[in-house]
Write a structure and sequence with these properties.
The chain is mostly helical. The protein is built from eight helices and no strands. It is extended.
Length: about 160
Amino acid sequence: MSAQDKLQYYISQLSKYPTLNRLEQKTQVPKAYAVLGSGAVFFTFIFFNVFAGFLSNLLGWAIPAYLSLKALETPGHDDDTQWLTYWVIFGAFNFIESMSKVLVAWFPYYYTVKTIFILYLILPSTRGATVVYAKVFKPLTSQTKTSSVPTPVVPQ
């Protein structure tokens, strides 16, 4: 599949959203341009640190919250696990971030990196939340689980 075919596929997927269809009818601007323009403005604001903290947290909350609610209505449990894992990682990341505000202030392009990390966690093509859980959180919880469980005493 060529890049142009993939692009046409994604543009055709925008027709599923009635809000974008109404916007296209009212403004006479193709919905693909509206989505690309909005994304460009969003990432420009984050890159130049204009409302960057708010926008990165909005991205990390709004899309996953919507997809989590949709996942609750599906019969399978794979998407539920994906979003539960995401929320644990996102919460831990925000907790660590709130504890180290001084470091955040000294790290250039912090919110750009944070936004890329959030996208990595969210996107179904990367399944980043599952990867981070398997490589970071699972080893941490398995260490605490084995060390906190007392060894049973066998009577003799």
